Amino acid sequence: MDHMEELPRVLQQLWGIEGRSRPGPKPAFHISDIARAAIKLADAGGLAAVSMSKVAAELGFTTMSLYRYVDAKDDLYVVMLEHAFAEPPVLDPELDWRGRITAWAEAFRDGLRRHPWILQIPIQEPPLSPNQLAWMESGLDAFDGTPLTPQDRLSAMLLVNIYVRGTAQLTANMLTEPDEVREADRLYTERLTMLATPDRFPGIAATLEQPLDEGYAGDFDAAEFGFGLTTVLDGIATRITRARTR
């Protein structure tokens, strides 16, 4: 058997590989059409709004017609992820490794903000679709010029990936309107001050007594994201320094 025949049918389509054709009429639409229809549903109503029947209805076809393209809902998720993220950012070769991986992380964060339902898709296996592998390659390229081994580069890229996903997960359901955010913050601080007394929660109480830095005043989420990413990259920088002194 040809090795390409061993690939799931959805990956064969995404890579433009011609597998064995299925009996029946010629396909009436492209797998990218399925992706756009499913993403439209997910953007409007979250991942729960996506089903084979609803995607088919969005396209004006029967549910059975989708099975000429995707075998199951998991395949549909693969197609959605491939098209939701599209291609990775072009990293400026003039930047150092920190600048490049920061640009990569911010682009990844922005993609999750545009399509927060991505965080609801369970990760069952490493990526194999074209754009997903391109994102991985781009993250690894960010460490060009460093003494990190290929495995260390992969680990560093995954660490940044996990950090971005984690922060996006924490803020996915938070308010986005500035006035609503300010009011929610005020109410939370008021209630926290009442409940987190210094005798029982001294660490929390100390944070309430500390005024926010100027960097946090304009955009708390952005400042918090930057602080965490800088801390992660500081750890990677330590590994790079250690590798250079060996």
Commentary on this structure:
Keywords: DNA-binding, Transcription, Transcription regulation. InterPro entries: Homeodomain-like_sf, HTH-type_TetR-like_transc_reg, HTH_TetR, Repressor_TetR_C, Tet_transcr_reg_TetR-rel_C_sf. With 246 residues, the chain is mainly alpha-helical. The chain contains twelve helices and no strands. About 2% of the residues have low confidence.
Give structural attributes.
transcription; HTH-type_TetR-like_transc_reg; 246 residues; 0% strand; single chain; mainly alpha
List the helices and strands and how they pair.
Layout: H1 9-14, H2 31-45, H3 52-59, H4 63-66, H5 73-85, H6 97-114, H7 130-141, H8 150-171, H9 178-195, H10 202-209, H11 214-218, H12 220-244
Helix pairs in contact: 2-3, 2-5, 6-8, 8-12
The end-to-end span amounts to 47 Å
Helix content: 55-70%
Return Rg in Å.
23 Å
General shape: flat
Sequence of secondary-structure elements:
HHHHHHHHHHHH
Largest sheet: none
Q: Count of helical segments?
A: 12
Q: Averaging pLDDT over every residue, what do you get?
A: 87
Question: Helix/strand-derived class?
Answer: mainly alpha
Low-confidence stretches: 214-218
Percent of sequence in beta strands? under 5%
The total beta strand count reads: 0
